[in-house]
Amino acid sequence: MKILFASAEAYPLAKVGGLGDVAGSLPKALKALGHDVRIVLPRYGMIKDSLEDLARFPVDLGAAGEEAGLRMARIGGVPVYLVDKPDLYDRPKVYEYDDDGKRFGFFCKAILDMLPAADFWPDIIHVNDWHSALVPAFLRSKSAGDARFRRIGTVLTIHNLLHQGLFSRELFEWLGLPGDLWGPGGAEFYGQLNFMKAGIVSADFVNTVSPTYAREIQTAEFGERLDGLLRSRGSKLSGILNGIDYDVWNPAKDSFLTQKYSRSTLERKRSNKTALQKEASLREDAKAPLIGYVSRVTAQKGFDILIEALPKILDQGVQFVLLGTGEKKYEEPVSELARIRSDLMVWLKYDEALAHRIYAGSDFFLMPSKFEPCGLGQMISLRYGTIPIVRSTGGLADTVVDVTGDPSKGNGFAFREYTPDALLEAVLRAVGCYHVGRGWKSIVQRAMSTDLSWNASARQYVALYEKVRARVSAAT
Ligand code: ADP
Ligand code: GLC
């Protein structure tokens, strides 16, 4: 099959969070299954090296005709089309600009308008999150006059329903979206243009990144006001668990580590802990349980309950390191606490290499998320034999089995209620188990043996693409 994978991020070219990991690894896994898969990304400021110039092509929007360059890079053998439009993308960051609506709206249209120039006619365009969710909506009008577009099927993966891409009606007009899409049954959402909603109503299939989140988003609690619409998609909504890139996340080959290790050389994990304690200016105590957390610092990631529970966690003789950036309202209290506690280190930055050292050097990885579509942090930490302590929601519920609840299969610790007390209780159970020592090694080995690869999930995507392709070809 020919698959075009559209994303706003793809590691290592551009990464902000888990979307970057997925877009940098799922296409490689699909290629390994024999498919012709290509990625498309905007050409941001940080993507500079060894780019091939392919063409220039017209991008036609409602307001005006524009032009963009088409360039190419590669990720592990997978071709990456780059939409080059310097006034929109040649900037240092991926997101958080005032004109993001225009930037990603343009990106969506350019993805279709570049196909003749690329001479690549995919069976499936797989779009991801709101940044590329207008593609299926634009495709409708493209298909009307051109059979090559009519044969393309679309899949939308929701990585995070919180971020929907809400903009003014003027943007809708500027982009030239099909007029009949303006309305509550289309891209309109309480008077605004909603990119994600446009994708949900227009894509041939909608899926999300874990089975539990697929169920959750159909409820008012997690549905972000789109639960009714999602319920109405019924059998055309599924959840496929993410995998992680075993080439990037492998403690036996990880060159960021002080000491590489594997399941059979677990004792070597210890020197990574000592090195991390040193780097974090913590007491170099092999016995002190060390909890790591690498995360965006936002409400989603559980900071409301973590900030309350943290002093009590530290009072248990636990050391804690946090690497992340995000909202001031959480960054400030945690860094304030770090100033007065010698058992807490907070790095407010983005640092890929340090993230690897935290995954390897910690005993535990905390993820007290309020909601979590999939979560990669707990998967990476399992692979590094670093025991996850998680709130049982979304993909966390699908990947972490509680040791107390199921001693023979457990690979981590989980709690349900979103409260500081429930979080503290789970940490106490985890730390208690660690101190007892008996059975600890087998928990760690079980964690490291959990299958977190793309093997099964990439096949599920292929099955989904096949289903969509069959439906589209029956209709054309
Ligand atoms: P989300 O995509 O919601 O942020 P995930 O758990 O799916 O959460 O993925 C987060 C990814 O981003 C992981 O690869 C994690 O290691 C990485 N990450 C998050 N914050 C940082 C940071 N400050 N420095 C380095 N890597 C980070
Ligand atoms: C989103 C979600 C996260 C998921 C990632 C990749 O950022 O917040 O849970 O793992 O996308 O799908």
List key phrases describing it.
476 residues; alpha/beta; Rossmann fold; nine-stranded mixed β-sheet; 18 strands; 39% helix; elongated; binds adenosine-5'-diphosphate; binds alpha-D-glucopyranose
Explain how this protein is built.
With 476 residues, the protein is α/β, with parallel strands linked by helices. The chain has 2 domains: 2-243 and 455-475, Glycogen Phosphorylase B (Rossmann fold); 263-449, Glycogen Phosphorylase B (Rossmann fold, 3-Layer(aba) Sandwich), CATH 3.40.50.2000. Helices cover 39% and strands 19% of the residues. The chain has 19 helices and 18 strands. The chain has helices at residues 18-32, 86-89, 100-113, 115-118, 135-145, 147-150, 169-175, 195-202, 211-216, 227-233, 269-279, 303-314, 328-340, 352-361, 377-383, 394-399, 420-436, 440-449, 455-475; strands at residues 2-6, 36-42, 52-60, 65-75, 78-84, 124-128, 153-158, 166-167, 188-189, 192-194, 205-208, 237-239, 290-294, 319-323, 344-347, 364-367, 387-391, 413-415. The strands form 3 sheets. Strands 3-4-5-2-1-6-7-11-12 form a 9-stranded mixed sheet, sandwiched between helices. A 6-stranded parallel sheet has the order 15-14-13-16-17-18, with helices on both faces. Strand 4 and strand 5 (78-84) form a beta hairpin. Helix 12 packs parallel to helix 13. It is elongated, with a radius of gyration of 23 Å. The chain starts with a strand and ends with a helix. The model has no long low-confidence stretch (mean pLDDT 96). Adenosine-5'-diphosphate (ADP) is lined by residues 17-19, 21, 294-296, 323-325, 350-352, 355, 374-377.
